[in-house]
Amino acid sequence: MQKPSRYVGGEHGEVRKDWSAVSARLCLAFPDVYDIGMSHLGFKILYGIVNEHPKLLAERCYAPWSDMEAELRAHGQPLRSLESARSLRDFDVVGFSLQFELTFTNILLMLELGGIPLRAADRGEDDPLVIVGGPVATHCEPLAPFVDVAVIGDGEEKTPEIMLTWTALKAAGVPRRERLRELVRVSTKTGGGLYVPALYETEIEPETGVRVVSKPSDPTLPFPVKRAMVANLNDYPFPSGGPVSATESVFDRVSVEIARGCTEGCRFCQAGMIYRPVRERDPESILDTITRAVKDGGYDEASLTSLSTADYSAIHPLVKAVMKKFEAEKVALSVSSLRAYGLDEDLLDEIKKVRATGLTFAPEAGSQRMRDVVNKNITEEQLMTTAERVFARGWSKMKLYFMIGLPTEEEEDVRGIVQTGARARDVGRKVQRGRGPDVTVSVSIHVPKPHTPFQWCAMDAKDLVEVKQSWLREEARAGGVKLKTHDSEGSWLEGVIARGDRTLGDVIETAYRHGARFDSWEERLDLGAWQRAFEQHGIEPARFLGTIPVTARLPWDHLDVGLEDGFLLREYRKALSNRLSPPCGKVAGAFVHHTNLVDAEADRKRLVCYDCGVACDLGQMREERLVFLRKLGADERPAPREARDPGAPKVLPKHMRPPPKQVQGAPMRVRLAYRKVGLAAYRGHLDLVRVLPRILRRVEMPLWYTEGFHPRPDMVFGPALSLGIASLAEYVDLKLDGDVAFSLDGLVERLNAVSEAGLEFLAVRALGGQDAGINKVIDEAEYVAAIPHAWLAERGLSDLDALRARTDTARAGSLVVRRIIEGIGKDVDVAKYLLELAIGAGADALEAAGLGGALVPLRMRISMTGQGTAKASEVIEAVLGEKDVPHRLVRVGLFAMRDGRRADPTDLDAVRVKRTIQAHDVASEVVEAGGDAE
Fold first, then answer.
1. What whole-number distance in Å separates Cα of residue 507 and Cα of residue 104?
2. Do domains 5-226 and 667-777 have the same CATH topology?
3. Can you give the three-state secondary structure of 829-858, one letter per residue?
4. For residue 138, what are the CA distances in angstroms to 40, 417, 503, 562?
5. Is the pLDDT of residue 401 over 50?
6. Residue 422 vs residues 170, 215, 377, 655: alpha-carbon distances, Å
7. How far apart are CA 535 and CA 704, in angstroms?
8. Would the N or C end of the chain have less CB density within 10 A of its end CB?
9. 341-354 as b/e, with b when 16 or more CB fall inside 10 Å?
10. Averaged confidence pLDDT in the chain
11. Where residue 917 falls among pLDDT bands split at 50, 70, 90?
12. How many Cα neighbours within 13 Å face the side chain of 766?
């Protein structure tokens, strides 16, 4: 496996429940790799809600990469959950998150590997209920043949309801199809939100030739299906616990959702439409959650996140309050989804304390006319003011996100994208002088999404996209900014599926059968497989990408996201007239929320509402904001900022400043011994480098950090283990802040209480100034190899005497093997390093590491010198005379030699004596040569 840690579980914070003690079991199945899925906040929320319920259980599963898929198929093994290693078909409910249309083939992959029939019509009475949720569930007709239930809207209330209802009906012997009807009926009584494709009929829309949902097969079922909405997010506090990623993930930090919905009303943005209205979490709850999450998880970075985080009504005092809690703990705070206006200097000053590299903004369009078309309420002046404020604080990088392919777009609008980036860079040069900052312009391709004002628009053809990208490259060469563009093939396929109908189900399955997997990964997209599938089913994909008559029914019209009839069309027509709509829920004419209670209470201007159909209580919204400001202690108006002296020295950019100095005491050195067995053996060395500091922070060890722009805990590990090798004794030297009181008493027990499965701490020792580092005291390693008895028997070596004879013969000759590193070969003489080889010895080490079966142990001692060492796998190759011998390894220990005896590196007296003897020997030689002993 490329990354076996993706599949084994055992992370800190995972929940393992007794299957026999619950009524319903849910597998949260994310249709992408672990590295991406572990950052998904929706799964984190549902995992916490379900596992807090005494009658429910939730486990996780992620899409297997191609290497794992091949092994599962080769061994006839099902795809399993991480917590209990149960097949997906063993669960009552399997729930997929639909975040992106290009993950649909991965859903089929997971269903098939999990032992669940792909098509809903083929599932039997005992098969799991397959549900989907997330933003793409609002236009899921292409996936309808494979889905039992789609949850439209928020899932916090609906998920437990579905689980309990489904299992109760099944236990009562209700047939599967009637269970589906009853699920909808029960849900309708509690606000709706469930769509069962099999219970709705379809017909061809004459104006477009596209298949649309016409009516329910049972007139008692809802039509259209209304979305579910959690009116008050504080009824479902964001979870502080949950599994902590065991390998690097896309957003490798604790993230807390502070609000849902967005005030801006950008006409291309589906999320801004389907998650209305804006609902904010109580700041006290946010503070409590993020503080506990950082402590429980051991994180050193946290993030406040929402669709538009800067629009949270109390964002300024909230950022200050969070940073005040974290400033002594060296925890960095990031603020996601910043818009390019309204960031005042106080907020930027706060963010700057912990965010030293760059900021990202999304102007979206390169001309003012186009920004008005998409309803991006920002002017060129506001964007440049933000750039000046950012670069004046020493930021060295800025990334700007734009789109091409927007309706009414002209050549000057496209070229204006890079020109806008160049102007922002010029502002930075004036502020910082000299070379100035780096500005990157990232340009994606607009896909007209359902439930947005642009849902009727045509999508740019591939050749037109390529022309527009050539204009961008021309401007980038002239303007001196970095340019990143997106692949048009993936966007084309995304557009087809997003605007597609139920007939695309056959295409999706055929493309999957032709090998389509991980289509959202640019390097993995096989457009040929999709084109063959379209041709096989006689479907012309271009029909889904053209302009749609506004009078035609759409494949997603039967799913009501809460917007009143006519709202999207009004916004579409305003877009074509270059007319703006103001941000909703804000004071007319204002772009910045009040930062203090005094100004907020004095301002009684009307809040803007432009009647989208979502019921908002603007009076309650205003009062809630005042409550939040009071809770955060924002009672006083901040002191006026002093006018900037034009003659004052400018803030130097990062590349011209010295690295920041860490405020910490003298370092105190400590050596930890630990074992790495079972699931932990599948964590690579880089995973361990990430995981170990988090474990140490959970017990509040005052870690000492390196200096520089990117401080890290100062740790030195013993010789790294190759992936998959278990170890009964490993060592790491680390430094603690000597100015912080911290006792080592009982530390081993405290560490083990918050560690991960298979990672067990054994001993801790305080190091003195005379104690050498771990890598300077280790002289040899001991391993036990486990070789399958069947493999040896095939070669006539099942008898230990025969095996000894083979190895003795090999050791009498040459033990040179060829080591290949990055394509370069090197001969290694294993005999130089092999101290001892014992056939049949070491069974106890295999047992301690959890290895069992018909295995023959080989114990070996290998020297580790300044000139090099041999790998245990190289010893096996040399003494058995074959490459690729199947085996598993256990490192029994690392040792220092003293007077011919081995010493444990935590036996500091023995190690220290050894070094003293060596120094005495050197001094004696110097004296004999006529020199001074000192």
1. 11
2. no
3. EHHHCEEEEEECCCHHHHHHCCCCCCEEEE
4. 18, 31, 17, 11
5. yes
6. 63, 53, 21, 20
7. 62
8. C
9. bbbeeebbebbbeb
10. 89
11. very low
12. 11
CATH class of 667-777: alpha beta
The larger pLDDT score, comparing residue 453 to residue 247, is at: 453
| Strands laid side by side in the 482-485 sheet | 358-364, 397-404, 438-445, 482-485
549, two tokens: 């008559």
Long-range contacts of 294-297 (CB under 8 A, 24+ apart): 294/254, 294/326, 294/329, 294/331, 295/697, 295/698, 295/700, 296/13, 296/240, 296/241, 296/698, 297/12, 297/13, 297/244, 297/254, 297/694, 297/698
58/244 Cα distance (integer angstroms): 16
Tokens of 799: 């008898």
What span, in angstroms and rounded, lies between the C-alpha atoms of 60 and 84? 9
Residue 781, beta-bridge partner list: 862, 894
Instruction: Enumerate the β-bridge partners of residue 730.
Output: 674
Among 431, 416, 477, CA closest to 400: 416
Q: How far apart are CA 647 and CA 298, in angstroms?
A: 45
User: What angle is formed at CA 539 by the lines to CA 533 and CA 545, rounded to 5 degrees?
Assistant: 110
**202 - beta bridge partners?**
213
Query: How many CB atoms are located within 10 Å of the residue 689 CB?
Result: 16
Architecture of domain 5-226: 3-Layer(aba) Sandwich (3.40)
Domain boundaries, the chain: 5-226, 667-777, 780-903
| Residue 573: HSE in the Cβ half-sphere, 13 Å Cα cutoff | 6
Side chain identity at residue 701, one-letter code = M
Nearest of 727, 779, 688 to residue 891 by alpha carbon? 727
Buried b (16+ CB within 10 A) or exposed e, 436-452: bbbbbbbbbbbbbbbbb
Give the separation between CA 325 and CA 330, rounded to whole angstroms: 10
Contact 740, 665 (CB under 8 A): yes
Model confidence over 319-356: pLDDT tens digits? 888 988 887 777 888 887 666 665 677 777 777 765 54
DSSP H/E element including 568: helix 567-576
User: So what's the pLDDT on residue 933?
Assistant: 43
- Structure token digits, residue 695: 């474990």
Q: What is the model's pLDDT at position 914?
A: 46
- The 3-state DSSP composition of the chain as helix, strand, coil percent (nearest 5) reads 40, 20, 45
Cα dihedral across residues 272, 275, 277, 279: positive or negative: negative
Domain 780-903 - what CATH class? Answer: alpha beta
Q: Which two tokens stand for residue 930?
A: 């006529």
Encoded tokens for 728: 């009964």
User: What whole-number distance in Å separates Cα of residue 778 and Cα of residue 759?
Assistant: 21
**Which of 402-406, 605-609, 711-715, 928-932 is the least confident region?**
928-932
pLDDT at 915: 45
Alpha-carbon Rg for the chain, nearest whole angstrom, is 31
Predicted TM-score (pTM) of the model is: 0.91
Owner of token pair 């109908």: 501
For the chain, give the longest Cα–Cα distance. Answer: 108
Cβ contacts of 912 within 8 Å, gap of 6 or more: 770, 771
Token pair of 254 as six digits: 């604790």
Tens-digit pLDDT profile for residues 25-72? 999 999 999 999 999 999 999 999 999 999 999 999 999 999 999 999
Terminal CA-CA length for the chain: 55
Place of tokens 């789109």: 403
| Gap between the Cα atoms of 887 and 738, Å rounded | 45
Check: CB of residue 141 under 8 Å from CB of residue 502. Answer: yes
Backbone angles phi, psi at 201, to 5 degrees: -95, 155
Looking at residue 63, what DSSP letter applies?
A: P
To which H or E segment does residue 734 belong? strand 726-737
- Six token digits for residue 560: 């009501």
pLDDT at 923: 42
- Determine the Cα–Cα distance for residues 883 and 861; give it in Å rounded to an integer: 20
